[in-house]
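Chapter summary example.
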Amino acid sequence: MRLLEDSNLYKGIFWIVDETDPYNNSNYCFKIDSDVNGNAIELDDIGIAKSGNTYNHKLVWSQLPKSQTHGKSYNYYPRGRVEIHNGVAKIFLNGNINYEDVITFLKHEFNLTPHNGIKKVRVIEDNSSHYLCYLDAEKGWKPAQK
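The structure predicted for these 146 residues follows.
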């Protein structure tokens, strides 16, 4: 288990590109410093959604180098989002990556700890078309057009 060097609380988006070792996906986690109510503490301008305090998968992916995206569209790899509200963290993710190693990695990566005011972490498997990926080809998945 790898621990972060900082103790900030984060929300944001992520992809799981390396399914064999979730800890190899740190460069695919895009985090926003936040408080226990999910209020952004600092924002940068890469991929900020219209609401102003969440990342947008499509926009963030489009700004990454091809060496990192492997030439794939933003919806190719399984992905998800971490949201925080009133001390409860919610991890929304594609069902193909809903397993304990990935959840543990995400809790560490986003610092979802009682020390940071997190009372509960809920995992919400989202198998809607919004989070479909290449692993969902039998469900009619089609890659986004670039």
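To summarize the output: Residues 21 and 74 are 20 Å apart (CA to CA).
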